[in-house]
Structures are given as C-alpha cells and as structure tokens.
C-alpha cells in the first residue's frame, strides 16, 4: 500500500461548518496537527453553512442612534446601554478618517 493510501486510512474526516479562512485557518492547523489516542490524524473538510449579509433593519437602527444622538443621552438609551457599540463605532470612524481605504 502506498504512503498516500496509508495516510488516508489513518485519518478521520472532520467536518468544519465554516469557510476556510485565509491566509491560514486556525481550526485547520489544529486538526491537521492533532491525533487521536490511537495515532489517527484528522482531515478537515470545510462545509460553509452560513451566509453573511447585512440586516438592513439593524443597520437602520444604528444609523438612527448615531443620527439622533442616542448614544449621548442619559438613561435607558444612553452610553450605559450602548457603551460597547459606541466605542466600536468611534474606533471605526477614527480608522476611516485615518485610512480612507476601509
């Protein structure tokens, strides 16, 4: 039996429900380097199951909050409620100002 056939016999197909990240995929690297207790390897198989797309309703809500000052107010709609999102938006805006290719 040749080496290629031996390698396939001693590996387990491992389904990863995701796309293969580029330039490297941490999951692929992990499974390719790991072994079962009896010495078999893993063969990652990528099966993308999600489709990434913008949710227009939620994007509209973010635009509304920014436009209407929803992050600056006090109380329920103020910084305490949306603090993390606000900080993230500030970082993105700053990056956008510094690097117009974003």
- Strand adjacency order, main sheet: 1-2
Number of helices: 4
List the helices and strands in order. HEHEHH
Measured distance between first and last alpha carbons:
52 Å
Number of strand segments: 2
Structural class: alpha+beta
What spatial form do the alpha-carbon principal axes imply? Answer: elongated
Strand percent estimate = 5-15%
Alpha carbon gyration radius: 23 Å
Q: Which regions are unreliable across 5 or more consecutive residues at pLDDT < 50? A: 1-7
* Biggest sheet architecture: 2 strands, parallel
Walk me through this protein's architecture.
This protein is α+β, with helices and mostly antiparallel strands. Helix content is 46%, strand content 12%. The protein has four helices and two strands. The chain has a two-stranded parallel ribbon with strand order 1-2. Helix 2 (26-33) links the parallel strand 1 and strand 2 (41-46). The longest helix is centred in the C-terminal third of the chain and has 20 residues, at 79-98. It is elongated and about 60 Å long. The relative contact order is 0.10.
List descriptors.
102 residues, 4 helices, 12% strand, elongated
Indicate the topology.
Elements: H1 3-9, E1 11-16, H2 26-33, E2 41-46, H3 56-67, H4 79-98
Parallel strand pairs: 1-2
Give a quick summary of the entry:
With 102 residues, the protein is of the alpha+beta class. It has helices at 3-9, 26-33, 56-67, 79-98; strands at 11-16, 41-46. It has a two-stranded parallel sheet.
